[in-house]
Specification:
The chain is an all-alpha fold. The chain has a single domain, classed as UbiA prenyltransferase (Tetracycline Repressor, domain 2), CATH 1.10.357.140. The protein is about 75% helix and about 0% strand. Helix 8 runs antiparallel to helix 13. The longest helix is centred in the first third of the chain and has 25 residues. The protein is globular, with a radius of gyration of 22 Å.
Length: about 300
């Protein structure tokens, strides 16, 4: 009897090392998803204000060692912030369409695993902080408190985005403290600008989940502002541009910086256009676009310090 070749089917033979490697790979993938490494927009939103401050405090040439430490700190603390946020929201996220598939909400990562990963990243953050100046370390402690407590604040207040702005912009006073030994008025003004900017983009982000948040009882500026959301976002966008213009005047920056800020203002106008109908997809697009404002300001700042 003739036996066709395709009658034979390969038999899977378990291999301990291969199976273990696959399990480790799947676990690491879930951890990376938990840290949002596949969505780097959050890293950019933290990184651009950090670079603003480093370039201004360092007069266009920040110390290379400090630059590397701050960039590592941005990635580590943003990742840790995502983990503690998902841990705090683990009872809410399964009921929100956008977040139901997150590793912790979907049960692919356990709460204890998430906490262990958070602690591990926290230890890396502490190690980085210990390599900085004593005053900077004190500011780093405050920044860590902001990061840990923010996810729980939205249960009690309607404006958690302002607190998020402090957490996202706290590297600004840290940069000035590290490079100048103190935080001048211009550093605090830059922080105010960043807080307002954070409220702008995080309100657009919250507009995506507005109905789900209303249903489950999570508070946000998107719910608080109601039908006035676009007008209030626009007013805050104007305040961000004005505050950063004052930073430029105080620092003696010139035309290149003004051009960068002008490009950023055009990007704000584009985001207003995107959210004009308040539909979830367009609001999410506007949020993902937000970091380009920070890029425009940084490019203008850097070019001005090169050619001024």
């Amino acid at each position: 009897m003739n036996t066709r070749r395709d009658d034979y089917k390969p038999v899977y033979e378990p291999h301990p090392l291969r199976d273990a490697a696959g399990a480790v790979r799947r676990t690491l993938t879930e951890y990376a998803l938990l840290m949002r490494l596949h969505r780097p927009v959050g890293i950019w939103l933290l990184m651009w204000p950090t670079l603003w401050a480093l370039w201004l405090a360092g007069e266009g040439r920040p110390d290379q060692r400090v630059l590397v430490l701050f960039m590592l700190g941005v990635v580590v603390m943003r990742s840790a912030g995502c983990i503690i946020n998902d841990y705090a929201d683990r009872e809410f996220d399964p009921h929100v369409r956008r977040t139901a598939s997150r590793p912790l909400a979907a049960g692919r990562v356990t709460p204890n695993e998430a906490l262990a990963l958070f602690v591990g990243l926290g230890l890396i953050g502490v190690t980085i902080a210990l390599l900085l100046e004593p005053l900077t370390r004190l500011y780093a402690v405050a920044g860590a408190v902001f990061t840990v407590t923010y996810p729980y604040l939205k249960r009690f207040v309607h404006v958690p985005q302002f607190y998020l702005g402090l957490a996202f912009g706290w590297s600004i006073p840290m940069a000035f403290a590290e490079l100048t030994g103190g935080v001048p008025r211009i550093g605090w003004l830059m922080l105010v600008a960043n807080v307002l900017w954070s409220v702008v983009y995080d309100t657009m982000y919250a507009m995506v989940d507005r109905e789900d948040d209303r249903r489950i009882g999570v508070k946000s500026t998107a719910l608080l502002f109601g039908d006035a959301d676009r007008a209030i976002i626009g007013a805050m966008q104007v305040m961000v541009v004005v505050a950063l213009a004052l930073v430029g005047r105080e620092a003696g920056l010139g035309t290149w910086y003004d051009v960068g800020l002008g490009v950023g203002a055009l990007m704000f106008a584009w985001e207003q256009w995107l959210i004009r109908h308040r539909d979830a997809d367009s609001c999410f697009r506007a949020f993902n676009h937000a970091h380009y404002f920070g890029l425009a300001v940084f490019v203008g700042l850097a070019l001005d310090q090169i050619y001024h």
